[in-house]
Specification:
By secondary structure, this protein is of the alpha/beta class. It folds into 2 domains: 5-198, Alpha-Beta Barrel (TIM Barrel), CATH 3.20.20.70; 207-271, no CATH class. It contains 13 helices and 11 strands. The strands form 2 sheets. The protein has an 8-stranded parallel sheet with strand order 1-9-8-6-5-4-3-2. A 3-stranded antiparallel sheet has the order 7-11-10, covered by helices on one side. The longest helix is centred in the first third of the chain and has 14 residues, at 49-62. It is globular. 49% of the residues are buried. Bound molecules: flavin mononucleotide (FMN). Flavin mononucleotide binds at residues 19-22, 24, 43, 45, 70, 72, 96, 117, 138, 141-144, 171-174, 192-195, 198, 280-282.
Length: 287
């Protein structure tokens, strides 16, 4: 059987992490991936605290294997989420969109394995210094939020690998065994896959969203809201017009939290309302 630092860290069979994704990765997807030997992650970023607790409990009932929860650190009810994760003894937490120094120690003291998502060597080092057990290095190809540096996966992975000693998990544009093989040749010890898992039966998005993933071709996604918070979305006329309106906005803590609060309320991706949803996909979605 294949083992490396990532399989050993999480206690899994394959170094494949299913990314935490708002709207898409609830207990059904997370438990299916964990049961198959990878690491399933519940995406807490679109869940009210009571919803998160119920997903964790259902996931525990559906799998005896390790699983995790992803929390974007700028989530409005962050402290409630953290309390629930600790009370429910979730084995792994993947933090993103924030400073790894703020909460890593709290999770580690509770016996939780902590992984932080970064888009540069600088933040990889910061995560290592904060005591994280591993990092996800996410390149510009990734669906969802992107680093401001716009560094591609091909460039990012060797740079981050040279910068830190903790295991590097590659993300961004990875959906096949060949792509996994490529990033592992660059020094990654595992992969975090997002967009590909959106298309799975167990993902909680509407079938329209799943078809959009399967039908999207090269060039069908674009980076939007570059100043406010860069995010890779499927190109759509209506949403692009809305993004253009917010084009000049710059990031403040207040408008970021308002933006996340919108995610929690927004059911467009689960209802399949094509016009309203800001559907996030990787840069390259045909496999
Ligand atoms: C629909 C969707 C929702 C996402 N939501 C989150 C999220 O809530 N938190 C987070 O850290 N990353 C989120 N991401 C990024 C993923 O966790 C992951 O790192 C990324 O999808 C990897 O790139 P790939 O889509 O090319 O596989 C999201 C991505 C997608 C496609």
């Amino acid at each position: 059987m294949f083992t490396n630092r990532v399989t050993e860290l999480f206690g899994i069979d394959y170094p494949i992490i299913q990314a935490g994704m708002i709207w898409a990765s609830g207990w059904k997807l997370a438990s299916a991936v964990s049961n198959a030997g990878g690491l399933g992650i519940i995406g807490a970023g679109s869940m009210y605290p009571d919803v998160l607790r119920s997903h964790i409990q259902k996931c525990k009932a559906a799998t005896s294997r390790p699983f995790g929860v992803n929390i974007p650190l700028l989530y409005p009810d962050l402290e409630q989420h953290i309390r629930i994760i600790i009370e429910e003894q979730v084995p792994v937490v993947v933090t993103s969109a924030g400073n790894p120094k703020t909460w890593t120690r709290t999770f580690k003291d509770a016996g939780i394995t902590v992984v932080h998502v970064v888009s540069s060597s600088k933040f990889a080092l910061k995560s290592q210094d904060a005591g994280c057990d591993a990092i996800v290095a996410e390149g510009f190809e990734a669906g969802g939020h992107n680093g401001r540096e716009e560094t591609t996966t091909l460039v990012l992975i060797p740079a981050v690998k040279n910068a830190v000693q903790i295991p590097v998990i590659a993300a961004g544009g990875i959906a096949t065994g060949r792509q996994m093989f490529a990033v592992m040749a660059l020094g990654a010890e595992g992969v975090q896959v997002g967009t590909r898992f959106v298309a799975c039966e167990e993902a909680s998005v509407h079938p329209h969203f799943k078809s959009a993933v399967l039908n999207a071709a090269e060039g069908d996604t674009q980076l939007s809201l570059k100043k406010l918070t860069p995010v890779r979305l499927l190109k759509k006329r209506v949403f692009s017009a809305r993004c253009r309106k917010r084009k000049g906005e710059v990031l403040t803590r207040a408008n970021w939290q308002a933006y996340w609060a919108g995610h929690v309320r927004n059911g467009a991706c689960t209802k399949g309302t094509w016009k309203r949803g800001n559907w996030r996909l990787a840069r390259q979605v045909r496999w």
